[in-house]
Specification:
- The chain has 378 residues and is α/β, with parallel strands linked by helices.
- It has 2 domains: 214 residues, Spore Coat Polysaccharide Biosynthesis Protein SpsA, Chain A (Alpha-Beta Complex), CATH 3.90.550; 156 residues, 2-C-methyl-D-erythritol 2,4-cyclodiphosphate synthase (60s Ribosomal Protein L30, Chain: A, 2-Layer Sandwich), CATH 3.30.1330.
- 29% of the residues lie in helices and 30% in strands.
- The strands form 5 sheets. Strands 1, 4, 5, 6, 7, 10, 11 and 12 form an 8-stranded mixed beta sheet that branches. Strands 16-13-19-17-18 form a 5-stranded mixed beta sheet.
- A hairpin with a 2-residue loop joins strand 8 and strand 9.
- The longest helix has 13 residues.
- It is elongated, with a radius of gyration of 28 Å.
- The two termini are 29 Å apart.
Length: 378
């Protein structure tokens, strides 16, 4: 079994991206955390050395406390190879993987293949063959076509025997942006190619995030949440449903504004992500929530879970004898979709009466049941 130290490099300036890409939030994590997580769970990885820009070194405590295998967080250098060298100084295993922190979706198979090949090779790189026609250009015009059958796009993680990588750094006379190129030019060691993956995307430009989001969405699991709420009705109170004032003649008896549509949506969302119910977060004996707008509560819950989920649709069934709700449905959908950052077409609100039977039919009760379908980041 080959034990490896992993150096994850995230010390660049992100000049082409326009902002610090490795600390972009992607669902519930920073972009670089997806890279960390891939190696954290790998049985061959003994330690992770995280190399950050000096401006971001204050994040060290966060990573060291959250990830068991992150043993060192060190500042990077002026160039990429300076950053890798800084990380290499802390590597304790005889084999080292160097990975781009901006490649958050490296498949397990790629990692396995690189590690397996290290048993026989001094340097290993994952790569994918060129798929498009490739050419040299001059002055905006094609000058010469290149045989793409011999061309590869090199990815990470790149694997090395530690002593080989150290020797290459010691003999380096110029700046390299790729460790395998440095090992080849300085020592003459050719890297063994193993299969890379088109999904092993490196985020370089802002448009890369759209592609990455599509890839990651395909790895999310679907979850369903069911929510229910009801309130007694009494005269002289406001009836608020879906964030919209329906009437002031009679309304819900409740600690908050008694909006059973919003309450049932909150419970459905909480259920979909495995959280406790609405009463846990907003107790009905807490004076802070006396008369509070349920829209405020929905917004607070959404901020809590939004990095973990993508809502597919919401379906509410409201039971109220009168007044008729249909004239208010458009405003209710607008309010809900605005808070949840959702297209109105993904919110359904249907109204039923009690046919003058039971608590609903006798104007004693309003109730709502909601089903939500979400994509959940696991």
């Amino acid at each position: 079994m080959v034990d490896v130290s992993v150096i994850i490099v995230g010390a660049g300036e992100s000049a082409r991206f326009g902002e610090n890409k490795i600390f972009l939030r992607l669902y519930d994590s920073y972009l670089i955390e997806y890279s960390i997580a891939r190696f954290e769970s790998h049985p061959n990885v003994r330690e992770i050395i995280l190399v950050l820009n000096r401006k971001d070194i204050n994040y060290a405590g966060y990573f060291l406390s959250k990830y068991r295998k992150v043993k060192y967080v060190v500042p990077g250098g002026k160039e990429r190879q300076d950053s890798v060298r800084n990380g290499l100084l802390h590597a304790n295993c005889n084999y080292v993987l160097v990975h781009d922190g901006a490649r958050p979706n490296v498949p397990l198979k790629v990692i396995n293949d690189v590690i397996d090949e290290l048993k026989e090779s001094d340097a290993v790189v994952p790569a994918i063959s060129a798929r498009d026609t490739v050419a040299y250009s001059r002055g905006g015009m094609i000058e010469e076509y290149i045989d793409r059958n011999r061309l590869y796009s090199i990815q990470t993680p790149q694997g090395f025997r530690k002593d080989v990588l150290i020797k290459a750094f010691e003999g380096s006379k110029r700046v390299y942006t790729d460790e395998s190129a440095m090992v080849y030019e300085v020592l003459g060691y050719r890297a063994k190619i193993v299969g890379g993956s088109p999904e092993n995307v490196k985020v370089t430009y802002t448009e890369d995030m759209a592609l990455l989001n599509k890839i990651l969405e395909n790895t999310m699991e679907y979850r369903i949440g069911l929510g229910y709420d009801s309130h007694r009705l009494a005269s002289g109170r406001k009836l608020v449903l879906g964030g919209v004032l329906i009437t002031e003649e009679f309304g819900a008896v409740a600690h908050s504004d008694g909006d059973c549509v919003i309450h049932s949506i909150i419970d459905a969302l909480l259920g979909a992500v495995g959280e406790k119910d609405i009463g846990t977060f907003f107790p009905d004996d807490d004076p802070r929530y006396a008369g509070v707008s349920s829209v405020t509560l929905l917004r607070e819950i959404w901020e809590r879970i939004k990095d973990k989920v993508k809502i597919v649709n919401i379906d509410c069934t409201l039971r109220l004898e009168q007044p008729k709700i249909q004239p208010f449905v458009g405003d209710m959908k607008s309010c809900i979709s605005s808070v949840l950052e959702l297209d109105q077409a993904r919110v359904g609100i249907k109204a039923k009466t009690g046919e003058k039977v039971g608590p609903v039919g006798e104007l004693k009760l309003v109730e709502c049941e909601t089903v939500v379908l979400v994509k959940y980041s696991v």
